[in-house]
């Protein structure tokens, strides 16, 4: 069993030490799981828990992130996404990293931790969703989903995206379909203005079929997922209101 990683130093000069720690933490079982999800060699097979354990020690080190990414190692690139400084990523940097990615898990991690937090997320999303490359379009729709949670974003963006999702989801790339469906859900729970419109669109779209390979992953049906999310939010709001009333008494 792999041992939890502990670093003596966490500067960009310690790239070799970190790669050694990653290699020691890898397991064949985790490598098998990652391969089923599309990861390719070089690959150590370090669990996400161990990646996050190491990230907490490093915190933010952009120079180190660049070094980790340059190794081409799948685990090192996962860690790079967690320790990179999004504010220091140019559009050219972001495009270059995304061009290197060829499996969906790393796309999701890259978008969630780097691309969504770098300045200019909206034009980046609009640009990436135009790509014919499945991984790039996936990243663009991942970004749309992140933007939908920002109440300050202009609703016009999501109106255009909703129309496009309904029009194109059946004919796009495999991973793009999955991310479009996730964006559809995110738009549906964005505000009351969108909920009924999105549910109607999801009904017209019907089941979204995505090939998840030899994994247990699924693409959730949008309508029940939206309703479940909204029911959960309503229940949480009721609990907060009850707690507030209790404190006042």
Low-pLDDT residue intervals, each spanning 5 or more residues: 1-8
Helix/sheet category = mainly alpha
Instruction: Please give the oligomerization state of what you see.
Output: single chain
Task: Give the ordered list of helices and strands.
Answer: HHHHHHHHHHHHH
CA-based shape: globular
Mean pLDDT: 94
Summarize the biggest pleated sheet.
none
How many helices? 13
Beta strand %: under 5%
- Percent helix: 55-70%
* Radius of gyration, in angstroms, nearest whole number: 20 Å
From the N-terminal CA to the C-terminal CA, the straight-line distance is 53 Å
Number of strands: 0
Describe the protein's architecture and organization:
Helix 7 packs across helix 9. This protein has 13 helices and no strands. Mean pLDDT is 94; it is low at 1-8. With 249 residues, the protein is mainly alpha-helical. The radius of gyration is 20 Å and the shape is globular.
Topology:
Elements: H1 15-25, H2 28-36, H3 48-58, H4 62-70, H5 74-83, H6 91-100, H7 104-115, H8 121-128, H9 134-148, H10 155-168, H11 174-188, H12 192-205, H13 222-248
Helix pairs in contact: 3-5, 4-5, 5-7, 7-9, 8-9, 9-11, 10-11, 11-12, 11-13
Quick synopsis:
Helices cover 66% and strands 0% of the residues. The chain has 13 helices and no strands. Helix 4 (62-70) runs antiparallel to helix 5 (74-83) and helix 7 packs across helix 9 (134-148).
């Amino acid at each position: 069993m792999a041992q939890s990683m502990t670093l003596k130093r966490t500067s960009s000069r310690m790239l070799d030490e970190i790669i050694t720690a990653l290699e020691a933490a890898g397991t064949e079982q985790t490598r098998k799981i990652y391969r089923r999800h599309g990861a390719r060699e070089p690959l150590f097979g370090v669990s996400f828990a161990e990646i996050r354990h190491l990230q907490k020690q490093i915190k933010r080190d952009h120079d180190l992130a660049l070094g980790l990414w340059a190794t081409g190692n799948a685990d090192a690139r996962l860690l790079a996404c967690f320790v990179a400084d999004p504010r220091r990523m140019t559009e050219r940097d972001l495009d270059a990293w995304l061009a290197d990615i060829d499996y969906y898990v790393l796309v999701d991690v890259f978008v969630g931790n780097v691309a969504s937090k770098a300045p200019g997320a909206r034009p980046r999303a609009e640009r990436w969703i135009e790509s014919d490359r499945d991984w790039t379009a996936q990243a663009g729709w991942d970004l749309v989903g992140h933007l939908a949670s920002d109440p300050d974003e202009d609703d016009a963006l999501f109106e255009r995206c909703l129309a496009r999702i309904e029009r194109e989801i059946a004919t796009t790339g495999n991973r793009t379909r999955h991310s479009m469906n996730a964006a559809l859900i995110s738009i549906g729970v964005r505000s009351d203005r969108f909920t009924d419109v999105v549910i109607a669109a999801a009904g017209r779209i019907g089941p979204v079929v995505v090939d998840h390979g030899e994994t247990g992953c699924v693409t959730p049906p949008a309508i029940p997922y939206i309703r479940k999310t909204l029911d959960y939010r309503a229940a949480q709001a009721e609990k907060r209101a009850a707690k507030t009333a209790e404190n006042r008494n």
